[in-house]
Design brief:
The complex is a heterodimer of chains A (97) and B (314).
Chain A lengths: L1 H28 L3 H23 L6 H32 L4
Helix pairs in contact in A: 1-2, 2-3
Chain B lengths: L2 H22 L3 H21 L3 H25 L4 H6 L4 H23 L9 H6 L1 H4 L4 H9 L1 H19 L21 H24 L7 H17 L11 H25 L10 H25 L8
The chains are: A mainly alpha (97), B mainly alpha (314).
Chain lengths: 97, 314
Amino acid sequence: MNTAIDIFTVVAICAGAAFFMAGSVGLLRFPDSLTRLHALTKADNLGLGLIVLGLLPQADSLLGGLKLVAVWLLVQLASATVAQLIAQALRHRGRGT
Amino acid sequence: MSVIQALDISLAVLVLAVAIWTIVSRDAFAAVVGYVAYGLLVSLVWVRLFAVDVALTEAAIGSGVTGVLLISAAVRLRGTEAAVAAEWPGAGSRVLAAALCMVVTAALAAVVLTMPDPGATLAPEAARHLAETELGNPVTAVLMAFRALDTLLEKVVLFLAVIGVWSLAADGNWGGIAGPRRATNRQGALAFLAQLLPPVGIVVAIHIVWIGANEPGGAFQGGAILAAMWMIVIMARLAEAPAIGERRLRLALVAGPAVFLAVGLMGFAVANAFLAYPAGLAKPLIVFVEVFMTLSIAVSLPMLVLGPPDRPSS
């Protein structure tokens, strides 16, 4: 049972890391700011989400698990807001580069 | 080499690389972004050194609050940047600056390399007397009991820094609303965040102050989170910044150092020494002082970020 949980953790965290990798590649390779922003939010949402999902079975208490979920939700909120603010600033300047 | 070691080494290399990038960057805003990233990486280093208290403070103050402060400074200085970039120092002063930097680096390296191993430490002493403070977190015990004088002076310095910032105000603006005039239009996304986040942030901040007695946390980390919540509300224009002449604001600013000093002076009467706590009452007194310190920190940091008032009070 423990091994199964550990395998789940490793698989989920690797998948999360893959999303971070893809997000970073997108940040470096995409042509303009709006698409780069799009790539970044994927890393935050899915990448961190999968990492938290993988860590959940390893939490030593219910409270610890809730804290992990709270971290994910707070990062979601922050990254969504920052993405909106950057996009707004870009539109204000009238260019997407 | 184990995986952990490899990660530690890459973290160290990354910190150095970001530090160099921050210094080399010619654009002030980019340098500030580099500095914030540097602060977050350094807080990871502190976690790896098992200094979670320091990591929390570095992330909140070193990266967070200082980051906001430097971003507003960079935005304000944007107009002058071209003129500064045009000024290129002569060969003589550049050689001199390089030589000075190398001497400082060499001196620091010499000091670090000649340190005895294991270094002189008071950690066993602190751990042995931890029980007398009734606290479970040795860092809080050092900050609030063994080296309480340092912490008290640190709070006074923070207060003096606020006075320093305020003293930059023009005569006519004295007592006015802190910080530059802001546009009144609200930005939807930021206003949404400023409405959603503070209830969560306030609970987290109080939690961090409270568990600081036994686990990593404390007045500075909790106060910084409270300060961040207030700053978000001000930045989203949901509330106006306070006028620096306001009595409540000034009371909140002095509350921390004043209560700490009063408890310290009380130590003369009840425990025969300045900043000594009577046996059995150490923990309640420390928590009492920390509550007021949190309030002062939560008020001081936004005052430092907002800057001096630039419009009259009424």
